[in-house]
Amino acid sequence: MKERIRKKILLAPEEPGVYIFKDKGVPIYIGKAKILSNRLRSYLNPQTEKVLRIIEEADELETIVVMNEREAFILEANLIKKYRPKYNVRLKDTDFYPYIRISDDEIPYVEIVKRRSKEGTYFGPYTSVQFVKNLLEILQKIMGFRTCKSDLRRIKRPCFLYHLGRCTGPCIGNVESHEEAIRRLKEFLSGNMGEVFDYLKEKMETHSKMLDFENAAKYRDLLLNLSNVLESQGVVFEESISCDVLVHAHDLFVVLRVRNGYLVGKISFEMEGGNVEDFIREYYVSGRGDIPKTLILESDLDEMDYSSLGFEYVGPPRSTTEEDLLEKAKKNLENELKMRGLRKEALEELMKLLNMKDFPYRIEGIDISHLQGKYTVASLVVFEDGFPKKSDYRRYKIEQDHPDDYESIRTVVKRRYSKHPLPNLLFVDGGIGQVNAAVEALKEIGKDCPVVGLAKKEETVVFENREIKLPHDHPVLRLLVQIRDETHRFAVSYHRKRREKESLRSVLDSVPGIGPIRKKKLIEYFGSLENIRSASLEEIARVIGSAEIAKRILDAL
Question: Which ranges carry the GIY-YIG domain (predicted)?
Fold first, then answer.
């Protein structure tokens, strides 16, 4: 420990505040304390390896005194969010979760995003991208908020969404109507869904009394579709409850997000060495999740008052409905822990089988897909700690004159690992030929990594120099089959998309009026001939800006 840091610790104030350990001016750890002097003196006799590393690396210590522990809590969270110190506890997503973002433009637009990287108002995270897409599609039909990102100052006429009644048209001056649409959307996503349901019921009944059955049916369908989308998440409570339910065990945290009686998300995170207070700071205060009025926990938290953060209640269940939710959260946590246990057992066995020096924490899997040598693609999937990490998946397009899986594997391995670090283990879908192709490619670029394959015929585990036949219920074989199936699924889906896009391009080339720009728009929006065939004339026209050419496209199909 540097002498000047020791002196600062001994002179630390006996007041609440935040302390920052720095290395060359960069924060490496930020903490809070009810009494700074007491907390910092614990660093004079480090009890953990983490604390020892912090005081060995740090060359400066800064303290910030605040009025109370609540202010220290919020300041700590904001500083961690800003500087991302390497020794602070961080949440690690066990899967990818989407958010709904409302931009902070003068006239906001709405979009689905993967991470909270821009300014704006965020809602989520949600469990499923498809759920969010379906939800926004229904809500846009009801409210009319804009989803385009165009510069409205340059727009002279409204798009097809306006004519279809899906946008209020702020681009032509209907700004107040759009502000109301955004207000209603925020209310709905915050859990106040009753207003929208009441609105749809009222419209349906009003048109029905007027014998306007066509419009009555329209609002009835919107009401049913909205209910169906929300119910698709799997849990609906009779009581219109809105809350988050948080449970944890070891370093795994599970959150159930319930809004107006509907389960809109079940998410899980890993946090090494973290407690419930750490999670609340990292997840809610730092802006990972929107703050509900109620947060249900297994037990009370000591001392800390969370009302200033926006919570109205934080604590154990107060009703049978909240108790049911807590039990559901616990069951989800048990399932997650069970799956982690199975995977850890499999990874440890795999490490022994391959005589690996390092634990196979990160495994990358490669598969090749083609149609008689045409449209060849490769998929690369990533498993960390036995779980898929879909945000790291990659796809590769391979140009070749004739089918050659071995050469395709060599090409992908060299392209990938010439630029990216090696995983702990590389998996290839195939037998000894595919494994050797990967090993040779690694040697060509001067790198070395354990490689394993799975021969399809008898599910034989293949290494560079040997093969092993495992029982069908062996944890290693189950894990490798899961990785193989995931690489195959990802490769086939990309191959299908590439093949369909090529077919779509050839058809569009024959339609008069379709140039490179319109062709690109159609391919990006629809992706396949089948999607265009099932689309309406209005939807195609909206994408390309011409009803006449849209009719030509449908005629060509």
Answer: 14-89
